[in-house]
Specification:
Keywords: Iron, Metal-binding, Oxidoreductase. This protein has 332 residues and is α+β, with helices and mostly antiparallel strands. Helices cover 23% and strands 19% of the residues. The chain has one domain: B-lactam Antibiotic, Isopenicillin N Synthase, Chain (Jelly Rolls). The strands form 3 sheets. Strands 1-2-10-7-12-5-4-3 form an 8-stranded mixed β-sheet. Strands 6-11-8-9 form a 4-stranded antiparallel β-sheet, with no helix packed on it. A two-stranded antiparallel ribbon has the order 13-14. The termini are far apart.
C-alpha cells in the first residue's frame, strides 16, 4: 500500500514502555510482544526532560539552516563523523532513483587524543562547528549523546529479560560497556514520490542492536511488518511528544535467531520539512555476535554464522554511503 501524502489512514498501533514503571514484568511483556510483532515500540518517562529535548531540536535546526558551503566544511570523514549532504546515502537501490532526500550529521563517542582505540572504525574525534558559528552547539549535543546512551542501556536491560537472559547481559564490557553509539541529526526537505523512486529515506532495516528515534510532529516514518508480503503493506508511525520510538537492529535479529524482528522502515515526505534525531546503539567493535543460547534448539539451529560487530557495521555503511571522493570539488 503506497501512500504519498500527509494523510495517514493506515497508522500502526505500537506498545508503549514506561521506563519509570515499577512493574518490570509488565514492561518485559509489552516489549516482548512488540519485538515479536513488529520490532517497534515507544519509550516514555525515559529521564530526558522535554525542555532539553526541545533545545536539542532547536540546535539541530540551527545547524541545518546554515548555508551549504558552511555545512560542507564539516563534511563527514572516513570515521562517519560530520555532515552528510542530500543524496549521500542510498538505502534502497532497487527502488530509489537517486539517494535519500535528507541531510544529516553524525556524532559519535569521543575518546581522549592519543587513545589507541581511536584507530578503530567509528571511533575518533568528532567534527564540530566553530563555537562562534553555533555557540553552545557542541555542549548540547555531547550532553544529549550521554543521556541517550543511558536510555538505551535501560531499554537493553528489558530486552535481555525478554530474551530470558540475565538483566545485565548487554552491560558487559564487550557489549554496551564499551559501545559504538552514534547520534545522527536528520533534516528532510519533504520531497517524496514513490512512483518516481524518490524517498526521504529508502526502505531499510537498521544495522545494530537498537535505535532510539526522536521526531518532531511531522508524519513521515513508515514501517513494513512483513517484508516478504506481496504487495508490501506500509503503516505510518505517529510521532509521540517526548517519547523515543525504538526499533531493533539487524545484529539483535541475528543474536535472537530471528525471534525478534529488525523491521523494514522508510520515510516519505509530504511537502513539509521534518526533523528527527536517530541514536544508533551497537556493541563494541570486537563483540562476536552469535546466536544466543536461549534462542536456539535442535529444531531451531542458528540461522547466521558468528560475526564481529565492526566487520558487519563497516560493510553496511560502505554499501549505503557515497564514496567521499565525489566531494573533492568541495574541498578545493
Amino acid at each position: 500500500m503506497e501512500q504519498n501524502g500527509a494523510e495517514a489512514d493506515n497508522v500502526s498501533i505500537l506498545n508503549c514502555i514506561d521506563l519509570s514503571s515499577p512493574d518490570i514484568h509488565k514492561s518485559v511483556s509489552l516489549l516482548k510482544q512488540a519485538c515479536l510483532d513488529c520490532g517497534f515500540f515507544y519509550v516514555v518517562n525515559h529521564g530526558i526532560s522535554q525542555e532539553f529535548m526541545d533545545e536539542v531540536f532547536a540546535q539541530s535546526e540551527k545547524f541545518f539552516k546554515l548555508p551549504l558551503n558552511e555545512k560542507m566544511k564539516l563534511l563527514r570523514n572516513q570515521k562517519h563523523r560530520g555532515y552528510t549532504p542530500i543524496l549521500d546515502e542510498l538505502l534502497d537501490p532497487d527502488s530509489q532513483v537517486h539517494g535519500d532526500y535528507k541531510e544529516g550529521y553524525y556524532i559519535g563517542i569521543e575518546l581522549p587524543e592519543g587513545d589507541p582505540e581511536n584507530e578503530k572504525p567509528f571511533y575518533g574525534p568528532n567534527i564540530w562547528p566553530e563555537p562562534d558559528v553555533l555557540p553552545g552547539w557542541r555542549q548540547t549535543m555531547e550532553r544529549f549523546h550521554g543521556e541517550a546512551l543511558e536510555v538505551a542501556k535501560a531499554v537493553a536491560r528489558i530486552i535481555a529479560l525478554a530474551l530470558d537472559l540475565e538483566v545485565d547481559f548487554f552491560d558487559k564490557p564487550e557489549m554496551l560497556g564499551d559501545p559504538i553509539a552514534i547520534l545522527r541529526l536528520l533534516h528532510y526537505e519533504g520531497i517524496s514520490d514513490p512512483s518516481m523512486g524518490i524517498y526521504g529515506a529508502g526502505a531499510h532495516s537498521d544495522y545494530g542492536l537498537i535505535t532510539l528515534l526522536a521526531t518532531d510532529d511531522v508524519l513521515g516514518l513508515q514501517i513494513c511488518k512483513d517484508k516478504d508480503a506481496k504487495p508490501q503493506i506500509w503503516e505510518y508511525v505517529a510521532p509521540l511528544k517526548g517519547a523515543f520510538i525504538v526499533n531493533l537492529g539487524d545484529l539483535l535479529e541475528r543474536w535472537s535467531n530471528c525471534i525478534f524482528k529488525s523491521t523494514l522502515h522508510r520515510v516519505l515526505g509530504n511537502g513539509q520539512e521534518r526533523y528527527s534525531m536517530a541514536y544508533f546503539v551497537e556493541p563494541s567493535h570486537n563483540c562476536l555476535v552469535e546466536c544466543l543460547p536461549t534462542c536456539k534448539s535442535e529444531k531451531n539451529p542458528p540461522k547466521f554464522p558468528p560475526i564481529k560487530c565492526a566487520t558487519y557495521l563497516s560493510q553496511r555503511y560502505k554499501d549505503t554511503h557515497a564514496d567521499l571522493n565525489i566531494y573533492n570539488k568541495h574541498q578545493t
